[in-house]
Amino acid sequence: MNLQVGASVLGLVATICDIVFTGREEAQHIWKKPLRITLVRCLFVLMRYPPVAIHIIYAIFASMWMNGAEGVPEEHHCNIVMIFRIITGSIMLLLLDMILMLRVFALYNRSRLIGILLLFSLALRIGLTTYTSRNHLPEKITFNSYCIAKFTFKNTSNGLNPVLWEICGEFGLQLGIIALAMKRTVWDFRRYSYSLFSVLNRDGLIVFCTIGVTMVGLGVASVKKGAGGATVLVFPSVITLVSAAVSAQ
Predict the structure, then answer these.
(1) Count of the separate structural domains present in the chain
(2) Is 24 left (phi over 0), alpha (psi -120 to 50) or beta?
(3) What is the Cα–Cα distance from 245 to 249, expressed in whole angstroms?
(4) CATH number for the domain including 28?
(5) What pLDDT, on a 0 to 100 scale, did the predictor assign at position 116?
(6) Strand ranges, E, within 75-180
(7) Which residue ranges does the record assign to the DUF6533 domain (predicted)?
(8) Could you tell me if residue 110 is left (phi over 0), alpha (psi between -120 and 50 degrees) or otherwise beta?
(9) For residue 218, what are the domain limits?
(10) Which pLDDT band, with edges at 50, 70 and 90, does 227 fall under?
(11) Average pLDDT over residues 186-193
(12) CB–CB of 228/146 below 8 Å?
């Protein structure tokens, strides 16, 4: 078993264990009757179960194309893997952001102003990272035997690193969400003492720390030139941690 397959299997096992261990709470809050299709329920399901398929597909890619010791895979194979990583990782983060925003939106009694602010923040984050990714990538990307890019983004035009912009954008968005939640639960209701408020803030900080670990891993992988070894754990870890973060909501 090569290193990439092992990392994917480890991520798959961790994701399944998280689903199993939190199954009782999920049944109580998500699958309770009357069972109706809601946006939150749909987002939750998309966050919880597709990661299993993502790990399996990635393990298949790894077993076919990323054999480590058998030389560098074909460039078009690595391009497929890179696109798969980017799309699935971005979608998972986007779904998590939407769930967190809906929670804040509900805290403010569906305030139109808060809704517009949250949507604007999300659009700004997506637009910023899309712009830097489209305009500051090198013309040609080479890969190592694990389909990890050999270049560092800091060597791209204007010295802009699209991955670091993505990290900064995600951190900024999460800090904004936490600030809005804290303002509502701590300041607006400072005269009251409800356990719900402390639970919401605790869960928000857990998710923030989870995303922080994920973003640090992405940052390390993006600046380590030609990195292999531990960086093969980054993508499976991102998918697993982001999927697990939704169980804290």
Answers:
(1) 1
(2) alpha
(3) 7
(4) 1.20.1070
(5) 92
(6) none
(7) 11-52
(8) left
(9) 3-248
(10) very low
(11) 61
(12) yes
